[in-house]
Amino acid sequence: MNNVISINIMRFIVLVLAQVLICNHINFLGYINPYIYILFVILYPLKNNRMLFIFLSFLIGLTIDMFLDSGGINAASSLCIAYARPVILKFSFGMQYEHQTMKFNAVEFGSKFTYIVLMTALHHLILFSLEIFSISRILLVFQKTLFSSIFTIILCVLITIIFSRESK
């Protein structure tokens, strides 16, 4: 089996298990939860089939929804960030993305951090907007988005640093 395919299959399984078994049981201050499964969407290779990527993004969100019994909000959020990913990549990485020459481990930390922040903030804004679904509770949506995004971003950055391969 191709090495890239096996890495993505393992990443999918490990992130779903980590989200379901560990992160879903973290409920800091009543409303701060990390959603590290979005690392699958964030770290998916650029040159692979876009339709497969969109399907897998939907599938990972749907898998999380089945374990959380959340009615499809994770699937919708994952699908939205999968569609927005090319725009966010172009904003974060510029010409490196346009020429398809970038490797996520080889780019500078500032661009990588901007990319993770934008993807996480968009995911969480959509997720909590669908979860609460009330314009009168918009401040709660922003509060949950802000604090859960901060917690998720810290974990995602730590995970990418710990598990990155040094290219020398």
Automatic annotation (TrEMBL):
It comes from the Bacteria. The chain crosses the membrane at residues 12-45, 51-68, 113-133, 145-163. Keywords: Membrane, Transmembrane, Transmembrane helix. This is Rod shape-determining protein MreD.
